[in-house]
């Protein structure tokens, strides 16, 4: 059912047809991009679950046979992400291998990763954010180094990605936020650390974990509204002034008072 739903939205992006959905745009944009790059022309109607794809080139969006095809590829990334996260936290190779082994044979993960769904994309960014956070914590003894900045910035990028796919990404934002608060509280209690240096730590986290995700999240919507410039099923949710900018709308190019 959901594959029919989100596959259709991927087609909307390829055809640049405006639509409305409750979820942020990143996941659907990535589905549409994967389909576009793999040669899908956006013509399959996705009318009801179970319809045969026939001659349509769906493989770029639905990785049924090759795990390197988008959703299946992102789902397969969860295994090394989990392995590296547990290895970093526990320093135990058997624990990390056991985690990866369990996830490889998780039926839910396998099933979700082989269809055109937002779930494998969301899980990719969630686990990538946790891995980045853990890696950044491991660089605490060398703050402001290149690796420290890299993992801190990558955490912010993945937070934006998680929130940009579904709003439940807010939970990983909460996790990283609590970790950051704990980290800053620990730094504040370090009497050998000057207030100026503490201010630098605080500023770095504001820039990478608040400003950067907000900029990226806003940019997703900028791309969303730029690409979807043709009239579609989502017109009625927006104002007349907005509809006048959509090609094919009855109000297109009509002068609308502010």
From TrEMBL:
GO terms for molecular function: mannosyltransferase activity. It is found in: Endomembrane system. GO terms for cellular component: endomembrane system; membrane. The chain crosses the membrane at residues 66-86, 92-109, 149-182, 202-227. It comes from the Eukaryota. The keyword Transmembrane applies. Pfam families: PMT. It is a multi-pass membrane protein. Residues 1-229 form the ArnT-like N-terminal domain. Its main location: membrane. One of its GO terms (biological process) is protein O-linked glycosylation. This is Protein O-mannosyl-transferase 2. It comes from Pachyramphus minor. The lineage of its organism: Eukaryota, Metazoa, Chordata, Craniata, Vertebrata.
